[in-house]
Amino acid sequence: MAKAIQIQVNGEQRDCLTGATVGDLLRELAIKTERVAVELNLEVLDRKDFDHRSLKPGDRVEILSFIGGGAPVDVQGKGKDFVHAE
Amino acid sequence: MQNDGLIIAGREFTSRLFVGTGKYKDFAETKKAIEASGADVVTVAVRRVNITDRSKENLLDYLDPKKYTILPNTAGCYNVEDALRYSRLARAAGVSDLIKLEVLGDERTLFPDTAGLIEAAKILVKEGFIVLPYTNDDPIVAQKLVDIGCPAVMPLAAPIGSGLGIRNPYNLKIIMEMIKVPIIVDAGVGTASDAALAMELGADAVLMNTAIAGAQDPIAMAEAMKYAVYAGRLAYKAGRIPRKLYATASSPIEGMLQ
Predict the structure, then answer these.
(1) Which of A13, A30, A55, B104 has its CA 20 to 30 A from that of B212?
(2) In A, residues 44-73, which contact B (CB 8 Å cutoff)?
Protein backbone atom coordinates (compact mmCIF):
# COMPACT_ATOMS: atom_id res chain seq x y z
CA MET A 1 0.00 0.00 0.00
CA ALA A 2 1.28 3.40 -0.92
CA LYS A 3 2.29 5.61 1.97
CA ALA A 4 0.33 8.77 2.70
CA ILE A 5 1.95 12.17 2.58
CA GLN A 6 0.67 15.42 4.04
CA ILE A 7 -0.03 18.40 1.82
CA GLN A 8 -1.99 21.59 2.18
CA VAL A 9 -5.00 22.15 -0.07
CA ASN A 10 -6.72 25.55 0.01
CA GLY A 11 -5.19 26.19 3.40
CA GLU A 12 -6.25 22.89 4.95
CA GLN A 13 -4.03 19.94 5.85
CA ARG A 14 -4.81 16.84 3.87
CA ASP A 15 -3.35 13.39 3.24
CA CYS A 16 -2.72 12.02 -0.19
CA LEU A 17 -0.93 8.97 -1.54
CA THR A 18 2.76 9.06 -2.35
CA GLY A 19 3.16 9.60 -6.06
CA ALA A 20 -0.28 11.15 -6.49
CA THR A 21 -0.47 13.90 -9.10
CA VAL A 22 -2.43 17.14 -9.09
CA GLY A 23 -4.84 15.42 -11.47
CA ASP A 24 -5.32 12.57 -8.97
CA LEU A 25 -6.05 15.07 -6.21
CA LEU A 26 -8.68 16.84 -8.33
CA ARG A 27 -10.36 13.54 -9.18
CA GLU A 28 -10.36 12.53 -5.52
CA LEU A 29 -12.04 15.85 -4.66
CA ALA A 30 -14.52 15.41 -7.56
CA ILE A 31 -13.47 18.70 -9.09
CA LYS A 32 -13.87 19.14 -12.84
CA THR A 33 -10.55 20.22 -14.26
CA GLU A 34 -11.93 22.40 -17.05
CA ARG A 35 -13.20 25.08 -14.68
CA VAL A 36 -10.43 25.47 -12.18
CA ALA A 37 -7.00 26.96 -11.90
CA VAL A 38 -4.41 25.25 -9.78
CA GLU A 39 -1.43 26.81 -8.10
CA LEU A 40 1.28 24.50 -6.78
CA ASN A 41 3.64 26.24 -4.37
CA LEU A 42 2.72 29.60 -5.95
CA GLU A 43 3.27 28.36 -9.49
CA VAL A 44 0.18 28.55 -11.70
CA LEU A 45 -0.09 25.23 -13.53
CA ASP A 46 -1.11 24.67 -17.10
CA ARG A 47 -4.17 22.41 -17.20
CA LYS A 48 -2.39 19.89 -19.41
CA ASP A 49 0.26 19.41 -16.73
CA PHE A 50 -2.15 18.37 -13.95
CA ASP A 51 -1.47 14.67 -14.54
CA HIS A 52 2.30 15.14 -14.76
CA ARG A 53 2.91 17.07 -11.57
CA SER A 54 3.27 14.78 -8.59
CA LEU A 55 2.77 15.99 -5.05
CA LYS A 56 5.48 16.04 -2.41
CA PRO A 57 5.14 16.29 1.37
CA GLY A 58 4.43 19.85 2.45
CA ASP A 59 3.26 21.00 -0.99
CA ARG A 60 0.81 23.86 -0.95
CA VAL A 61 -1.98 23.49 -3.47
CA GLU A 62 -4.54 26.17 -4.23
CA ILE A 63 -7.58 25.29 -6.31
CA LEU A 64 -9.64 28.22 -7.55
CA SER A 65 -12.59 28.83 -9.81
CA PHE A 66 -14.93 31.60 -10.87
CA ILE A 67 -17.59 32.83 -8.49
CA GLY A 68 -20.13 35.61 -8.71
CA GLY A 69 -18.29 38.84 -8.45
CA GLY A 70 -18.41 42.49 -9.03
CA ALA A 71 -17.21 44.14 -5.91
CA PRO A 72 -15.99 42.58 -2.68
CA VAL A 73 -18.37 44.46 -0.40
CA ASP A 74 -21.52 42.68 0.67
CA VAL A 75 -24.89 44.30 -0.04
CA GLN A 76 -25.64 44.25 3.66
CA GLY A 77 -22.24 45.66 4.44
CA LYS A 78 -20.91 49.02 5.42
CA GLY A 79 -22.21 52.07 3.69
CA LYS A 80 -25.62 50.54 3.10
CA ASP A 81 -27.60 53.27 4.78
CA PHE A 82 -25.40 56.15 3.82
CA VAL A 83 -27.48 59.02 2.50
CA HIS A 84 -25.78 61.71 0.53
CA ALA A 85 -26.47 65.20 1.78
CA GLU A 86 -27.50 67.05 -1.36
CA MET B 1 -29.62 51.38 -34.06
CA GLN B 2 -27.85 49.49 -36.80
CA ASN B 3 -24.14 48.68 -36.67
CA ASP B 4 -23.60 50.15 -33.27
CA GLY B 5 -21.62 47.31 -31.79
CA LEU B 6 -18.87 48.00 -29.33
CA ILE B 7 -15.46 46.69 -30.34
CA ILE B 8 -12.76 46.07 -27.76
CA ALA B 9 -9.52 44.38 -28.76
CA GLY B 10 -11.16 42.98 -31.89
CA ARG B 11 -14.15 41.53 -30.03
CA GLU B 12 -17.57 42.90 -30.88
CA PHE B 13 -20.30 43.27 -28.28
CA THR B 14 -23.94 44.04 -29.01
CA SER B 15 -24.90 45.31 -25.58
CA ARG B 16 -23.23 48.31 -24.02
CA LEU B 17 -24.20 47.18 -20.55
CA PHE B 18 -21.67 45.00 -18.73
CA VAL B 19 -22.82 43.36 -15.51
CA GLY B 20 -21.27 41.83 -12.44
CA THR B 21 -22.47 38.54 -10.99
CA GLY B 22 -21.93 39.17 -7.28
CA LYS B 23 -24.44 39.69 -4.47
CA TYR B 24 -27.41 37.83 -5.95
CA LYS B 25 -29.44 35.59 -3.67
CA ASP B 26 -28.71 32.52 -5.81
CA PHE B 27 -27.48 31.47 -9.24
CA ALA B 28 -31.02 31.24 -10.62
CA GLU B 29 -31.58 34.91 -9.82
CA THR B 30 -28.17 35.79 -11.25
CA LYS B 31 -29.07 34.08 -14.50
CA LYS B 32 -32.50 35.74 -14.79
CA ALA B 33 -31.11 39.19 -14.04
CA ILE B 34 -28.33 38.82 -16.58
CA GLU B 35 -30.78 37.65 -19.22
CA ALA B 36 -33.03 40.63 -18.45
CA SER B 37 -30.07 43.01 -18.72
CA GLY B 38 -29.24 41.83 -22.23
CA ALA B 39 -25.53 42.02 -21.34
CA ASP B 40 -22.89 40.13 -23.35
CA VAL B 41 -20.08 40.69 -20.89
CA VAL B 42 -20.32 39.44 -17.32
CA THR B 43 -17.68 39.87 -14.66
CA VAL B 44 -16.71 37.14 -12.24
CA ALA B 45 -14.28 36.82 -9.36
CA VAL B 46 -11.70 34.10 -8.78
CA ARG B 47 -11.83 32.37 -5.42
CA ARG B 48 -10.90 29.12 -3.68
CA VAL B 49 -13.06 26.13 -4.55
CA ASN B 50 -14.95 24.75 -1.54
CA ILE B 51 -13.21 21.39 -1.17
CA THR B 52 -15.18 20.23 1.86
CA ASP B 53 -18.65 20.77 0.39
CA ARG B 54 -18.61 19.68 -3.24
CA SER B 55 -22.40 19.97 -3.53
CA LYS B 56 -22.00 23.70 -4.14
CA GLU B 57 -22.97 24.58 -7.69
CA ASN B 58 -20.70 26.33 -10.12
CA LEU B 59 -21.58 29.75 -11.51
CA LEU B 60 -20.59 28.62 -14.99
CA ASP B 61 -23.32 25.97 -14.85
CA TYR B 62 -25.68 28.94 -15.08
CA LEU B 63 -23.71 31.23 -17.38
CA ASP B 64 -22.74 29.56 -20.61
CA PRO B 65 -19.25 30.79 -21.57
CA LYS B 66 -20.26 30.29 -25.20
CA LYS B 67 -23.11 32.76 -24.80
CA TYR B 68 -21.41 35.30 -22.54
CA THR B 69 -17.97 36.82 -22.52
CA ILE B 70 -16.65 35.98 -19.07
CA LEU B 71 -14.57 38.83 -17.73
CA PRO B 72 -12.67 37.77 -14.61
CA ASN B 73 -11.71 40.52 -12.19
CA THR B 74 -9.04 40.96 -9.57
CA ALA B 75 -11.51 42.25 -6.99
CA GLY B 76 -10.14 42.27 -3.48
CA CYS B 77 -6.52 42.76 -4.55
CA TYR B 78 -4.75 45.53 -2.67
CA ASN B 79 -1.29 45.23 -4.18
CA VAL B 80 0.39 44.56 -7.52
CA GLU B 81 1.57 41.03 -6.59
CA ASP B 82 -1.93 39.86 -5.69
CA ALA B 83 -3.43 41.43 -8.81
CA LEU B 84 -0.85 39.63 -10.98
CA ARG B 85 -1.41 36.36 -9.16
CA TYR B 86 -5.19 36.49 -9.56
CA SER B 87 -4.91 37.55 -13.20
CA ARG B 88 -2.71 34.55 -13.99
CA LEU B 89 -5.06 32.23 -12.10
CA ALA B 90 -8.03 33.69 -13.98
CA ARG B 91 -6.33 33.01 -17.28
CA ALA B 92 -5.49 29.47 -16.19
CA ALA B 93 -9.10 28.84 -15.10
CA GLY B 94 -10.78 30.55 -17.97
CA VAL B 95 -11.18 30.78 -21.63
CA SER B 96 -9.40 33.98 -22.59
CA ASP B 97 -6.78 36.60 -21.86
CA LEU B 98 -9.34 39.17 -20.73
CA ILE B 99 -8.90 40.60 -17.26
CA LYS B 100 -10.69 43.38 -15.44
CA LEU B 101 -7.76 44.71 -13.47
CA GLU B 102 -8.47 46.16 -10.04
CA VAL B 103 -5.72 47.23 -7.68
CA LEU B 104 -7.52 48.73 -4.72
CA GLY B 105 -6.00 51.35 -2.48
CA ASP B 106 -8.30 51.49 0.50
CA GLU B 107 -10.96 49.25 2.03
CA ARG B 108 -13.41 51.97 2.95
CA THR B 109 -13.63 53.66 -0.45
CA LEU B 110 -12.36 50.83 -2.66
CA PHE B 111 -10.76 53.56 -4.72
CA PRO B 112 -8.10 52.30 -7.12
CA ASP B 113 -4.42 52.54 -6.28
CA THR B 114 -3.58 54.05 -9.64
CA ALA B 115 0.20 53.76 -9.23
CA GLY B 116 -0.20 50.04 -8.53
CA LEU B 117 -2.72 49.76 -11.34
CA ILE B 118 -0.32 51.20 -13.90
CA GLU B 119 2.51 48.95 -12.69
CA ALA B 120 0.35 45.81 -12.82
CA ALA B 121 -1.14 46.76 -16.21
CA LYS B 122 2.34 47.14 -17.74
CA ILE B 123 3.34 43.64 -16.66
CA LEU B 124 0.08 41.99 -17.71
CA VAL B 125 0.03 43.64 -21.14
CA LYS B 126 3.56 42.30 -21.69
CA GLU B 127 2.30 38.83 -20.71
CA GLY B 128 -0.36 39.05 -23.40
CA PHE B 129 -3.37 39.88 -21.27
CA ILE B 130 -6.18 42.06 -22.58
CA VAL B 131 -6.27 44.44 -19.65
CA LEU B 132 -9.42 46.41 -18.85
CA PRO B 133 -8.38 48.58 -15.92
CA TYR B 134 -10.75 49.85 -13.24
CA THR B 135 -9.47 53.35 -12.62
CA ASN B 136 -10.24 56.72 -11.12
CA ASP B 137 -11.96 59.48 -13.07
CA ASP B 138 -8.51 60.91 -13.76
CA PRO B 139 -7.85 61.67 -17.44
CA ILE B 140 -4.05 61.58 -17.04
CA VAL B 141 -4.08 58.12 -15.48
CA ALA B 142 -6.53 56.96 -18.17
CA GLN B 143 -4.13 58.17 -20.87
CA LYS B 144 -1.20 56.38 -19.21
CA LEU B 145 -3.19 53.14 -19.19
CA VAL B 146 -3.91 53.56 -22.91
CA ASP B 147 -0.24 54.26 -23.61
CA ILE B 148 0.68 51.02 -21.84
CA GLY B 149 -1.63 49.13 -24.18
CA CYS B 150 -4.99 48.79 -22.44
CA PRO B 151 -7.65 48.52 -25.18
CA ALA B 152 -10.28 50.23 -22.99
CA VAL B 153 -10.37 52.07 -19.69
CA MET B 154 -12.96 51.81 -16.94
CA PRO B 155 -13.22 54.96 -14.86
CA LEU B 156 -15.50 54.94 -11.84
CA ALA B 157 -18.65 57.04 -11.54
CA ALA B 158 -18.55 56.83 -7.73
CA PRO B 159 -17.21 54.35 -5.14
CA ILE B 160 -18.04 50.69 -5.85
CA GLY B 161 -21.45 49.75 -4.51
CA SER B 162 -22.20 53.31 -3.36
CA GLY B 163 -25.06 54.02 -5.74
CA LEU B 164 -24.09 57.70 -5.67
CA GLY B 165 -24.24 58.03 -9.45
CA ILE B 166 -21.92 60.16 -11.53
CA ARG B 167 -20.04 62.37 -9.11
CA ASN B 168 -17.76 64.06 -11.58
CA PRO B 169 -19.38 64.27 -15.00
CA TYR B 170 -16.84 66.87 -16.14
CA ASN B 171 -13.83 64.64 -15.52
CA LEU B 172 -15.59 61.76 -17.25
CA LYS B 173 -16.40 64.06 -20.18
CA ILE B 174 -12.74 65.09 -20.40
CA ILE B 175 -11.71 61.42 -20.38
CA MET B 176 -14.18 60.70 -23.17
CA GLU B 177 -12.84 63.58 -25.25
CA MET B 178 -9.16 62.82 -24.61
CA ILE B 179 -9.05 59.06 -24.76
CA LYS B 180 -9.26 57.29 -28.08
CA VAL B 181 -10.18 53.83 -26.82
CA PRO B 182 -13.58 52.72 -25.48
CA ILE B 183 -14.52 54.15 -22.07
CA ILE B 184 -16.57 51.92 -19.81
CA VAL B 185 -17.99 53.74 -16.81
CA ASP B 186 -17.59 51.28 -13.98
CA ALA B 187 -18.94 51.40 -10.46
CA GLY B 188 -21.14 53.75 -8.49
CA VAL B 189 -24.29 53.69 -10.62
CA GLY B 190 -27.43 53.70 -8.45
CA THR B 191 -30.36 53.73 -10.81
CA ALA B 192 -31.34 53.88 -14.47
CA SER B 193 -30.88 57.64 -14.88
CA ASP B 194 -27.26 57.33 -13.74
CA ALA B 195 -26.58 54.79 -16.48
CA ALA B 196 -28.37 56.93 -19.06
CA LEU B 197 -26.34 59.97 -18.02
CA ALA B 198 -23.08 58.05 -18.38
CA MET B 199 -24.05 57.07 -21.92
CA GLU B 200 -25.28 60.59 -22.77
CA LEU B 201 -21.88 61.93 -21.73
CA GLY B 202 -20.38 59.66 -24.38
CA ALA B 203 -19.39 56.53 -22.48
CA ASP B 204 -19.03 53.51 -24.75
CA ALA B 205 -20.47 51.20 -22.10
CA VAL B 206 -21.45 51.02 -18.44
CA LEU B 207 -20.53 48.26 -15.99
CA MET B 208 -22.53 47.69 -12.85
CA ASN B 209 -23.30 45.05 -10.26
CA THR B 210 -24.79 46.37 -7.01
CA ALA B 211 -27.30 48.70 -8.69
CA ILE B 212 -28.97 45.61 -10.14
CA ALA B 213 -28.23 42.90 -7.58
CA GLY B 214 -29.04 45.16 -4.63
CA ALA B 215 -32.33 46.49 -6.03
CA GLN B 216 -35.56 45.32 -4.42
CA ASP B 217 -36.40 43.58 -7.69
CA PRO B 218 -33.06 42.82 -9.38
CA ILE B 219 -34.61 41.39 -12.52
CA ALA B 220 -36.81 44.44 -13.13
CA MET B 221 -33.83 46.72 -12.46
CA ALA B 222 -31.70 44.74 -14.90
CA GLU B 223 -34.30 45.42 -17.57
CA ALA B 224 -34.47 49.09 -16.60
CA MET B 225 -30.69 49.33 -16.98
CA LYS B 226 -30.86 47.74 -20.41
CA TYR B 227 -33.22 50.45 -21.63
CA ALA B 228 -31.34 53.22 -19.80
CA VAL B 229 -28.07 52.33 -21.49
CA TYR B 230 -29.80 52.04 -24.84
CA ALA B 231 -31.69 55.33 -24.41
CA GLY B 232 -28.55 57.12 -23.26
CA ARG B 233 -26.62 55.84 -26.24
CA LEU B 234 -29.37 56.92 -28.66
CA ALA B 235 -29.52 60.37 -27.08
CA TYR B 236 -25.74 60.72 -27.29
CA LYS B 237 -25.73 59.83 -30.96
CA ALA B 238 -28.75 62.05 -31.63
CA GLY B 239 -26.97 65.04 -30.09
CA ARG B 240 -28.68 66.96 -27.33
CA ILE B 241 -29.66 70.63 -27.54
CA PRO B 242 -27.47 73.13 -25.73
CA ARG B 243 -28.55 74.28 -22.28
CA LYS B 244 -29.85 77.87 -22.23
CA LEU B 245 -30.89 79.98 -19.31
CA TYR B 246 -34.01 81.45 -20.93
CA ALA B 247 -36.97 80.06 -22.79
CA THR B 248 -37.18 79.57 -26.53
CA ALA B 249 -40.76 79.21 -27.73
CA SER B 250 -41.56 75.98 -29.51
CA SER B 251 -44.71 77.28 -31.15
CA PRO B 252 -44.62 80.07 -33.74
CA ILE B 253 -45.87 83.54 -32.79
CA GLU B 254 -47.14 84.15 -36.34
CA GLY B 255 -50.83 83.57 -36.86
CA MET B 256 -51.80 84.38 -33.32
CA LEU B 257 -54.97 86.43 -32.72
CA GLN B 258 -54.37 90.17 -32.70
Answers:
(1) B104
(2) 44-47, 62-73
